[in-house]
């Protein structure tokens, strides 16, 4: 088989194994390599399909001869094997880029620093309720490539991280949604905010005048960048603060969608998703739904009965009048800001983990207003103590979810809420944010 038909895949989790299955289906000589240990569920898939793989290392002689390499979004460009591949001119792409070649389905693609998962799930919920033959993919749900290989969907709702966008070149979003941009993952972007902005705006690439670009007009970074770019797609801005020229806005406590002079209104108090940040998420999903000509009644019902993802502002239970909320997916300052902003009761805030260069100053006013006590859950909590120690007198340190929940519960009284919104990555004490969230829920249910 010629080198052009050989493909190597770096990373053997959901996206990598999905890409391998799709590549095999289309006649590629496939080799999968994972520097770590492959989870049993994925090892079984590769073995059953006779797809060659290795784990524990990357063997250059088996990778460097590929005509193309698909890499996991978790692998930075600065690792040696990626630099070596690029130096010799081997294309390195994402699973999303690869899978996009093999489907004619319409793709609704959602990116932004925060709110991606919620907006993706809400959009998928609306389309499903409307009877669309739709798949859920990208940074959430089943691998896009895996679904393209084995399903036959007419539409996909795809959550895209900046890391996935970085490996996309010919892929096109039929409907692209950009929710917001705040500094995040800057270690992957040479500590340049502009590099990160450029990554997010790859959502526009290859769009034509027949495509749609939905974006938040209240985000100054987005607005500033758009002045430079002048998108060719049809633009649909949404805003909480402005009405004129907006495709979605808030007026008299009503969410209002105005697409092709057809107005949809719904009380914000009827929305299943509460909080200012969720108004943005709902407007974005609503505009996409109206572009697809989904009936107003379906949108209304979907907005009212939607349930959010696990670990994203997930209500766990109430114990003796104290609510417990799992927002473990809040791994940056902006996500935690949104969580705190939406709280209507006094908060005992569980925060901490691996700090990604966080600037906690943007949380100062909210902490003064909303938070009565803080439990720091991490191996190094000094930065959190420095940021809030002069504001919050009641602070404690914990090194497990069980200990953090017990401390928070002891600090609380009836009518309070214990909020896990860590603001940080989870890898100091947990496998990932899912593990952190599940240990938190288990500890709460053991009270």
Instruction: Report the portion of residues in β strands.
Output: 15-25%
Distance between the termini: 61 Å
Q: How many distinct domains?
A: 3
| Helix-and-strand structural type | alpha/beta
Biggest sheet, open or closed, and with what strands and sense? 9 strands, mixed
- Record field, number of beta strands: 20
- CATH fold naming of the largest domain: UDP-N-acetylmuramoyl-L-alanine:D-glutamate ligase
Account of the 3D structure:
- With 447 residues, the chain is an alpha/beta fold.
- The protein folds into three domains: 3-93, NAD(P)-binding Rossmann-like Domain (Rossmann fold, 3-Layer(aba) Sandwich), CATH 3.40.50.720; 100-305, UDP-N-acetylmuramoyl-L-alanine:D-glutamate ligase; 314-445, Protein-Tyrosine Phosphatase, Chain A.
- Helix content is 35%, strand content 22%.
- The protein has 17 helices and 20 strands.
- The chain has helices at residues 14-25, 40-48, 60-63, 80-87, 95-100, 116-129, 144-150, 162-166, 193-200, 220-229, 276-291, 296-305, 333-341, 364-370, 382-388, 401-411, 433-445, and strands at residues 6-10, 29-34, 52-55, 68-71, 92-93, 106-111, 134-138, 155-159, 175-178, 212-216, 234-239, 248-251, 254-259, 262-267, 314-319, 322-326, 347-351, 371-377, 395-398, 417-420.
- It is globular and about 65 Å long.
Give a quick rundown of the structure.
This protein is of the alpha/beta class and 447 residues long.
């Amino acid at each position: 088989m010629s080198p052009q038909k050989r493909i190597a895949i770096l990373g053997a989790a959901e996206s990598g194994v999905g890409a391998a299955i799709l590549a095999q289906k289309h006649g590629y000589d496939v080799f999968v390599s994972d520097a770590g240990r492959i989870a049993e569920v994925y090892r079984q898939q590769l073995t059953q399909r006779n797809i060659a793989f290795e784990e524990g290392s990357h063997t250059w002689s088996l990778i460097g001869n590929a005509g193309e390499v698909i890499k996991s979004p978790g692998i930075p460009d600065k690792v040696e094997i990626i630099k070596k591949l690029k130096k010799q001119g081997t294309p390195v792409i994402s699973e999303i880029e690869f899978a996009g070649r093999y489907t004619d389905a319409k793709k609704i693609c959602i990116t932004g620093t925060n709110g991606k998962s919620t907006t993706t799930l809400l959009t998928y919920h609306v389309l499903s309720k409307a009877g669309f033959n739709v798949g859920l993919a990208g940074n959430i749900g089943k691998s896009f490539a895996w679904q393209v290989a084995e399903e036959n969907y007419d539409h996909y709702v795809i959550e895209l991280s900046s890391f996935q966008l970085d490996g996309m070149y010919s892929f096109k979003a039929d409907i692209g949604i950009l929710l917001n941009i705040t500094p995040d993952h800057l270690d992957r972007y040479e500590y340049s905010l502009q590099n990160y902005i450029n990554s997010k705006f790859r959502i526009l690439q290859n769009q034509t005048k027949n495509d749609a670009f939905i974006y938040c007009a209240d985000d100054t970074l987005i607005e500033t960048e758009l002045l430079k770019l002048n998108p060719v797609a049809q633009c649909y801005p949404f805003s909480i603060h402005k009405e004129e020229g907006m495709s979605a806005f808030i007026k008299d406590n009503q969410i209002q969608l105005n697409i092709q002079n057809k107005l949809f209104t719904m009380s914000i108090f009827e929305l299943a998703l509460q909080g200012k940040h969720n108004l943005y998420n709902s407007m974005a999903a609503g505009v996409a739904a109206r572009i697809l000509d989904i009936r107003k009644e379906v949108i209304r019902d979907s907005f009212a009965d939607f349930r959010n993802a696990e670990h994203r502002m997930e209500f766990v239970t109430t114990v003796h009048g104290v609510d417990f909320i799992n927002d473990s997916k809040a791994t940056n300052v902006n996500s935690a800001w949104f969580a705190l902003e939406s709280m209507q009761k006094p908060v005992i805030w569980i925060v901490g983990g691996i700090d990604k260069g966080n600037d906690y100053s943007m949380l100062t006013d909210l902490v003064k207003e909303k938070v009565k006590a803080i439990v720091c859950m991490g191996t190094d909590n000094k930065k959190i103590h420095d940021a809030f120690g002069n504001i919050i007198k009641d602070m404690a340190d914990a090194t497990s979810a069980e200990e953090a929940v017990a401390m928070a519960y002891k600090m609380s009284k009836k009518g309070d809420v214990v909020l896990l919104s860590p603001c940080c990555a989870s890898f100091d004490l947990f496998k990932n944010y899912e593990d952190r969230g599940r240990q938190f829920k288990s500890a709460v249910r053991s009270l």
